[in-house]
Design goal:
118 residues, mainly beta, 7-stranded mixed beta sheet, 4-stranded antiparallel beta sheet, 0% helix, globular
């Protein structure tokens, strides 16, 4: 079954760190653009970070200098290292995949909850 799967979410105190992972058993990440999105209650889903097949990265303004996206195509995995977490980072985080010649995100994971609270 082709699907993305996120892991690594949880409860963390403000100022803390979490590392999210995205893997798949049926979808190959190599050459494809990968991204992390998030959606907080009552808000629209927003782009957190993306990484192209060749490694170029892009970040949302609210997470620049705090979050780092990376990929390991050999392990078919994408990661999101989140540092200096704030309460406003609380959201469900989703992994997404886009094929090189398209603009639509073709695959999504079910999401993992990140809660930043003292």
């Amino acid at each position: 079954q082709e699907q993305l799967m996120e892991s690594g979410g949880g409860l963390v105190q403000p100022g803390g760190s979490l590392n999210l992972s995205c893997t798949s058993s049926g979808i190959v990440f190599r050459f494809n653009t990968m991204a992390w999105y998030r959606q907080a209650p009552g808000k629209q889903r927003e782009l957190v970070a993306s990484i192209a097949g060749h490694g170029d990265t892009n970040y949302g303004d609210s997470v620049k200098d705090r979050f780092t996206i990376s990929r390991n195509d050999g392990e078919n995995a994408v990661y999101l290292q989140m540092n200096s977490l704030k309460s406003e980072d609380t959201a469900v985080y989703y992994c997404a995949l886009r094929f090189p010649t398209t603009r639509r995100w073709a695959h999504w994971g079910p999401g993992t909850q990140v809660t930043v609270s003292s």
